[in-house]
Amino acid sequence: MKDTFFGFAIIGTGAIAEIHAKAIEAIPNARLVGVFNRTHEKAVAFGEKHACKAYESIDDLLTNSDVHIVCICTASGLHRDPALKAIAAGKHCIIEKPLEVTLQKSDEIIEAAREKGVKVAVIYPTRFYPASQHIRTAIDENRFGSLVLGSAYVKWSRDEAYYASADWRGTWEFDGGGALMNQAIHSVDILQWYMGPVESVQAIVANVRHKNIEVEDTAVAILKFKNGAVGTIECSTAVYPGTFKKIEVMGTKGSAIIEENSLVQWQFADENEKDQELRDMHAGGGPEKGGVANPMDIGFYGHQKQIEDLMAAISENREPLVNGEEGRKSVAIVRAVYESAQSGKPILIT
């Protein structure tokens, strides 16, 4: 894979596109070739900054044979159409979270990629951090015993200027939801990756602070997993000053807690020498940054690792770690939470 060159294009030049560009620039055999934005002046400025060509249309961009992978960085509810165009042109896609804001749109992308024989990856960089993978390995090795509780907490602060910064923010059509769909969906993904499929959810959502948006700024959900475990999701963009996101996985033989991307608890009934090494490695090394109050207060490490995984998947003709089907799972959970909140009833996830 290291000897194979991959050319990239970015569609959409919002804030997250900068993270994609930095990640691509850090990979020796990757190069950003082109960019498109609905506002051409923004594409030009982005292209000048990152030494790539600004295109006036997606169709023109996709005719470039040097483009092998397209990063979809548009508003969440505008992922489908550029993704379908890229797929039809035979390009692989890496799509920012969520895959799309409805299951129907998500399925259209998945099916189109399957028919065309191209790869689709959905951005969930949390899966690629060492602490996250330590937990997944321990689960696979049955070190937790029977899983009992799995919980995700994303309690952040977003001011009014954040929602006013783009006309799609805080709308059902283009944001697909609020604190849960936009901010907490990373934690929804990692929670179900650890705990397994969700059987049902029951939820309450509210808009406590941000009265000028259509969607929720706070949500609480109770989850029942198919393996018999239970759990919770708590998320908000209304609190001050906010806290680091946290994931808890607890079983009959062990427990682990991640804050941001650092292990803060790692305890098992059957200890081994590597357990103490991990605790020592993370002792005093808690997170210094995160998206608590500033969505751009993040690094590009996870994006880089995920882009490299897609490149390797293409070279090895395998599925990427977070393919379309994996990316769909968190959308299904979030949509079920919204349905439960609206109906006041538990919702089964099939």
UniProtKB/TrEMBL annotation:
Domain GFO/IDH/MocA-like oxidoreductase: 133-256
InterPro entries: Gfo/Idh/MocA-like_OxRdtase_N, Gfo/Idh/MocA_Oxidoreductase, GFO_IDH_MocA-like_dom, NAD(P)-bd_dom_sf
Domain Gfo/Idh/MocA-like oxidoreductase N-terminal: 6-123
Residue ranges that the Swiss-Prot or TrEMBL entry lists as coiled coil: none
Protein name: Gfo/Idh/MocA family oxidoreductase
SUPFAM superfamilies: Glyceraldehyde-3-phosphate dehydrogenase-like, C-terminal domain, NAD(P)-binding Rossmann-fold domains
One Pfam family of this chain: GFO_IDH_MocA_C3
